[in-house]
Write a structure and sequence with these properties.
The protein is 35% helix and 24% strand. The protein is α/β, with parallel strands linked by helices and 232 residues long. A hairpin with a 5-residue loop joins strand 1 (2-9) and strand 2 (15-22). The two termini are 22 Å apart.
C-alpha cells in the first residue's frame, strides 16, 4: 500500500503526525481513522490500508502525540500496561479539538476529491463521536466507543449521519450505557445502531484473538462500507 506519515498542523502552530494511506487510484473520499489505545500500530495501519483499498484516502492521526509520539504497541502485557497508562492520561476533549485540525488537513489534500468521514475504534469510537459534534465531517462511525454515554451533551450537535457498532457481550461497555446512547438519538433520524450477539469489546481487532470475531468483523465492515458509500 502507498502509506506514509504526514504532518498535521495545529491552530497553535504546533504539529503532530498521522499515517496516511492512499487508494490504488490515488484519490477519493477522505476518511479519518481513529486508533485504539495501542496507538497507530501495525493493526491500525492495516485497517487504514483496508479502507484505502476500498477507495478512501485514509488518515490515522497520532492521538497520544502530546504524551508520546507515534505510539506503536503490541498486544502483550508490556504493551497493555503502557496503553492503559496513556489512555488514563488523555484529555478527550482536547484530543477531539486536535482531530478537527486533522479533518481540515485531510480535506486540504489534493488526493481528497469528495467528502470526508470519520471512523473510530474503542477509545477512537468516543473520539469519532466527539469529532462529529465538533467538525464538518460528513459521516461518522463509532465502533464500541467507550464513554460516549458520558458526553451525550454533544449528541444534539451531531446532524450528519452516524453509525454505531456495539458488542452485546462487551466487558467494558454495559448495555445500560448503550441504551443511554440510543435514547439520546430517539428524536433524531440520523443515527443507525447495530448490535452484535455473542461478541466482546474489540471484535474487529484480529491482533487480539481472544476478542476477535470474524463474522461480526466482516458484517460490521460491510455495513460500514455501504454506509460510507452512501454518505461520502
Amino acid at each position: 500500500m502507498n502509506g506514509h506519515w504526514l504532518t498535521i498542523k495545529q491552530q497553535e502552530n504546533k504539529e503532530y503526525s498521522g499515517y496516511l494511506s492512499l487508494p490504488p487510484s490515488g484519490s477519493g473520499p477522505g476518511l479519518i481513522l481513529i486508533q485504539e489505545i495501542w496507538g497507530v500500530n501495525a493493526h491500525i495501519q492495516a485497517v487504514a490500508d483496508q479502507y484505502a483499498l476500498a477507495g478512501y484516502v485514509v488518515l490515522a492521526p497520532d492521538i497520544f502525540w502530546q504524551l508520546e509520539h507515534r505510539v506503536n504497541l503490541d498486544y502483550d502485557d508490556a504493551g497493555n500496561q503502557q496503553a492503559f497508562s496513556l489512555y488514563g492520561k488523555l484529555d478527550f476533549a482536547d484530543a477531539a479539538e486536535h482531530l478537527v485540525d486533522a479533518v481540515s488537513t485531510l480535506r486540504a489534500l489534493p488526493a481528497v476529491t469528495a467528502k470526508v468521514g470519520v471512523v473510530g475504534f474503542c477509545m477512537g469510537g468516543q473520539l469519532a463521536f466527539r469529532t462529529a459534534a465538533l467538525s464538518d465531517v460528513d459521516a461518522a462511525i463509532c465502533y464500541y466507543g467507550g464513554g460516549i454515554d458520558g458526553c451525550l451533551q454533544l449528541a444534539d450537535k451531531i446532524s450528519q449521519p452516524i453509525m454505531f457498532h456495539y458488542a452485546m457481550q462487551d466487558g467494558h461497555i454495559t448495555q445500560d450505557a448503550v441504551q443511554k446512547v440510543k435514547a439520546a438519538f430517539t428524536q433524531h433520524n440520523n443515527a443507525i445502531f447495530h448490535d452484535y450477539a455473542a461478541t466482546d469489546h474489540g471484535f474487529n481487532c484480529w491482533g487480539r484473538p481472544a476478542m476477535y470475531n470474524q463474522q461480526a468483523s466482516a458484517l460490521a465492515l460491510g455495513r460500514s462500507l455501504v454506509f460510507l458509500s452512501q454518505h461520502l
